[in-house]
């Protein structure tokens, strides 16, 4: 709190005080409120549970936390409101209160399961370099699966991986099932079975994966020039107009178009280089190239 030099209009005393918490200027003598919603000039603060948000009002609510970020946090600084250090007995009492507060947040088995699952979801999200929107969607799908009791008899990691892959499909983020399985270190078959269960029980509607969105990822892994990328997009657009991509694997079609574009731009890229960048086989590229060449009359 900081003293102001102006006088109170009611009592005429020089006792005006600014409360930075309520953002009010009032008289400490008679209690009259002079001004409301004063500007806060304090420096920004970062919260321990959020490395991004520095708002004075706390962090935003998020599905990435089991309590959605609405829990109460006991101040970790062992000081009172005036900044005076607390006594040893009071510090011990506050430490005990924090422990019980942390324990009281998670009451049921479902909440403990959700807390562990969201921790795994955060780790996998960072490994796959996924945006926050995809992780939020995955946590929402996991909560729905938990309500349906789909977790029984299945590992948390496999269900989290399946929810994350489902969120990638819904948001059209180019991540393959094999890529997710390799990153986590579990079998692709296990994630695939869990994904089919989620798709069936939650009655989800999956959009068709656009092969054009896969071009940037493959080109980045294979270090292909921007000219070849634009040429590959034109090839795919031309093939889409003739309905030649129906039923084809989007990653395979994108890799084949990029390989043909590299040949047209005279870039030194082999089928093996493009196949490794896309996570498919060279046979897939050769088969898709045949159909694309027929369409393009090459």
TrEMBL record:
Gene Ontology CC terms: transcription preinitiation complex
GO terms, molecular function: TBP-class protein binding; translation initiation factor activity; zinc ion binding
Pfam families: TFIIB, Zn_Ribbon_TF
Biased composition, class Basic and acidic residues, residue ranges: 56-69, 98-107
Alphabetical list of SMART domains matching this protein: CYCLIN
Species name: Marine Group I thaumarchaeote SCGC AAA799-P11
Gene3D superfamilies to which the protein is assigned, alphabetical: 1.10.472.170, Cyclin-like
Name this protein carries in UniProt: Transcription initiation factor IIB
Ranges of biased composition (kind: Polar residues): 82-92
Keyword set, alphabetical order: Initiation factor, Metal-binding, Protein biosynthesis, Repeat, Transcription, Transcription regulation, Zinc, Zinc-finger
Gene Ontology biological process terms, A to Z: transcription preinitiation complex assembly
Family per similarity comment: Belongs to the TFIIB family.
Segments forming domain TFIIB-type: 4-35
PROSITE patterns: TFIIB, ZF_TFIIB
Region (Disordered): 40-107
Task performed by this protein: Stabilizes TBP binding to an archaeal box-A promoter. Also responsible for recruiting RNA polymerase II to the pre-initiation complex (DNA-TBP-TFIIB).
């Amino acid at each position: 709190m900081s003293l102001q030099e102006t006088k109170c209009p009611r009592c005429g005393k020089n006792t005006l005080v600014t409360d930075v918490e309520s953002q009010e200027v009032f008289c400490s003598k008679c209690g009259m409120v002079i001004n409301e919603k004063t500007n806060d000039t304090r420096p920004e603060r970062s919260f321990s549970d959020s490395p991004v948000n520095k708002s004075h009002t706390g962090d935003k609510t998020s599905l990435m936390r089991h309590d959605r970020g609405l829990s109460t946090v006991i101040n970790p600084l062992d000081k009172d409101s005036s900044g005076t250090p607390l006594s040893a007995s009071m510090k011990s009492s506050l430490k005990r209160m924090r422990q019980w507060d942390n324990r009281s947040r998670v009451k049921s088995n479902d909440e403990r399961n959700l807390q562990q699952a969201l921790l795994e979801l955060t780790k996998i999200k960072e490994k796959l370099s996924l945006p926050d929107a995809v992780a939020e969607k995955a946590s929402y799908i996991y909560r729905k699966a938990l309500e349906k009791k789909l977790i029984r008899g299945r590992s948390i990691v496999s269900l989290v991986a399946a929810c994350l892959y489902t969120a990638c499909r819904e948001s059209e983020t180019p991540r393959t099932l094999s890529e997710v399985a390799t990153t986590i270190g579990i079998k692709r078959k296990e994630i695939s079975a869990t994904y089919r269960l989620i798709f069936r029980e939650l009655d989800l509607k999956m959009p068709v994966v656009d092969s054009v969105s896969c071009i940037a990822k493959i080109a980045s892994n294979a270090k292909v020039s921007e000219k070849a990328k634009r040429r590959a997009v034109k090839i795919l657009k031309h093939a889409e107009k003739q309905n030649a991509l129906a039923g084809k694997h989007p990653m395979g079609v994108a890799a084949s178009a990029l390989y043909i574009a590299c040949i047209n731009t005279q870039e030194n890229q082999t089928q093996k280089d493009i196949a490794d960048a896309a996570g498919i086989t060279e046979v897939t590229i050769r088969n898709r190239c045949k159909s694309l060449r027929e369409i393009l009359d090459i």
